[in-house]
Design brief:
single chain, 301 residues, mainly alpha, Serine Threonine Protein Phosphatase 5, Tetratricopeptide repeat, two-stranded antiparallel sheet, 2 strands
């Protein structure tokens, strides 16, 4: 993993090489997972191997100052693989279980190679997130949103493993970015329902995450938590601030959240427009269907 995720490679090359050499997936399987031509995957792997050979990267677990940077790169690649598996950005399926499972497996291996707090934070995040997979899709693969999921179907063993990993994810300087996200996932995992979720704590965790790993996606998720804790009007203020900044341009995420908040405020005409805009921007068929259904379900103005 440390060789295949070397910083000398591009992110796409790291992902392809890790899945091929470490995960054992074929070029065909990787190509299907990321919806790219097989030739593209093969070319990335070939170039990656040549680049590693030219750079004379040693086949070893690094130490010293190089270890932290390389370990961060490995965690980043595993996170990207899992994220694509848990919420596919394109294609027909909303969840790609093979990718998600492989990311979890490799992260477990990484905790044995590098048992550091943030590595356990990543494992906790992946376990707690994948615990909800059994309830996230219906009989035909259609997405089931959090508020509609049967929590009895959540994988309790994965939740237990995730919480155990999270207890090992607090280092001398506190919680890292993956551990904070795992803390948010834990709030969902232990709650009996959406209304009974500790949204105040989730807001605080997102605020902490925004300080150490700022991004528009973190702010957008914080807006959702603020809406749940304090009302959709306050959440909408955060979202509108992102719109003014031009954040997440071209992404379906922002109009999707904005449509939800406008709907809760009774501004149905605006909400319908946002849902439809989000659907146009969404590359995943299953998720696009959900957005179009939400727009259609709104009462006529």
């Amino acid at each position: 993993m440390f060789v295949s995720c070397h910083p000398v490679l591009s992110r796409e090359a790291r992902i392809a090489l890790t899945l091929r050499v470490v995960g054992g997936l074929t070029s065909d399987e990787i190509a299907r997972a990321f919806l790219v031509p097989v030739a593209t995957v093969q070319a990335r792997i070939t170039r990656a191997k040549k680049t590693i050979a030219a750079a004379q990267v040693p086949f070893e677990v690094p130490d010293g100052a190089d270890r932290a940077a390389r370990l961060s790169s490995v965690r980043g690649v595993l996170y990207v693989i899992f994220t694509e598996g848990s919420s596919a950005t394109s294609g027909e399926d909303w969840i790609r279980h093979d990718l998600a499972r492989e990311a979890v497996r490799l992260t477990r291996v990484l905790t044995r190679l590098a048992p550091e707090p943030e590595t356990f934070g990543l494992l906790a995040l992946l376990e707690l997130t994948s615990a909800r997979f059994p309830a996230r899709t219906g009989p035909t693969g259609e997405p089931i949103l959090l508020e509609d999921q049967d929590r009895r179907r959540w994988d309790r063993a994965a939740i237990t493993r995730g919480r155990a990993a999270l207890r090992r994810a607090v280092g001398p300087e506190g919680m890292g970015a993956y551990a904070l996200q795992a803390g948010i996932a834990e709030c969902h995992a232990v709650a009996r329902s959406v209304p009974e979720t500790d949204w105040e704590r989730i807001v605080l965790l997102y605020e902490a995450l925004g300080r150490i790993a700022p991004s528009p996606v973190v702010d957008l998720n914080r807006a959702v938590a603020v809406a749940m804790a304090h009302g959709p009007d306050l959440g909408l203020r955060v979202v509108d601030g992102l719109v003014e900044q031009g954040a997440l341009a071209g992404s379906h995420l922002l109009p999707g959240v904005r449509g939800e908040l406008l709907s809760r405020l009774g501004r149905t005409a605006e909400a319908r427009g946002e849902y439809l805009r989000a659907a146009e921007l969404c590359g995943n068929t299953a998720e696009r269907t959900v957005l179009e259904s939400k727009a259609a379900a709104l009462p006529a103005p």
